[in-house]
Write a structure and sequence with these properties.
- The protein is built from 15 helices and 12 strands.
- The chain is α/β, with parallel strands linked by helices and 352 residues long.
- Helix 6 links the parallel strand 6 (129-133) and strand 7.
- The longest helix has 22 residues, at 62-83.
- The relative contact order is 0.13.
Length: 352
Amino acid sequence: MKVWIDILTAKQALFFTPLAEELEKRGHKVVLTTRQYFEVVDLLRILGVEAEAIGRHGGETLYGKLEASAERVWKLAAYILEKAPEAAVCFASPECARVAFGLSIPLFCVNDSPHSERVARLTTPLASILLSPWVIPLSIWTRFGIPRSKVVLYRALDPAAWLKRGVKPKVEPKLNQIDRSKKIIAIRLEESQAYYLSPDDLMWTKSVIDSILNEASAANILILARNPVQRITVKERYGGRVTILDKAFFGPTLLKSVDVLVGMGGTMTVEAALMGVPTISAQRVGRLYTEEYLIKQGLILRPGTPEAVAKTVREILRDTHLRIEIEAKAKKMLNKMEDPVEKIASTIEVFK
């Protein structure tokens, strides 16, 4: 069987790399596509993965997103028609979904982010099978137009796909910027160009960083931006008071070296928690069921205000035993989780 996998983000590069390897190990051919987007192309290079870059990200505006998506559908259609795959796999890629539907290719759509509602509405109804973590209620997906019979749940959170399989970079980035003589507070910024974020959400991010600087100025505050615009904005506002990572990085390696992660998004927050890194959620993107599960399990803290986030960071840095406790709990939880890669590969093989 020939399987097409569309990779749009850094998270998807980490998630789909072991899936592609598993499918090839089972004797299938894999066609990989991506797009020109800030982090994903660099991370694929770090992982040693070759994917055909077709199209681009549409930027901040709704019209820009629509225009880029339309262009990408047109270019993908010609490319995929020639490759003639028998199955398509994506993480809620509207372009992959549209091309697969138009060319009558069975679509296996993975999604753990129903808060991105517009994307879910564009992709979920076209999926032959939707695969999702078990912590997300089935009723969330059926409201987007897919019957329960087409939803396959795996008992794992998405970062388990690369953490359980021990995905390693082919080229380890050298992060010489990081001052390891101090405690390291990593702040993963939000996806500022996502359609679902508002100006208030972006102001919240500034308030969180300001509060952390007031409470923990002696630490090395490491900003993990998602795009060049964020890097420029942070540099203009904070200058040398923070360290802005300006190179692509491999998340698991970086997270091992930080003392606490403050996450404004979803994936890296969950990833850090499953690795046993003291983790604080400061996201404002909506309801994240995966994060809620880890909060209940005691692996993620979610203070209510920027000031509370900063005070929690300070308390974590002072608690020398906390990381040992969290690592033990996280390891036990990760070991119990199902391998999403195995579940997805098997689901594709048995589909009729």
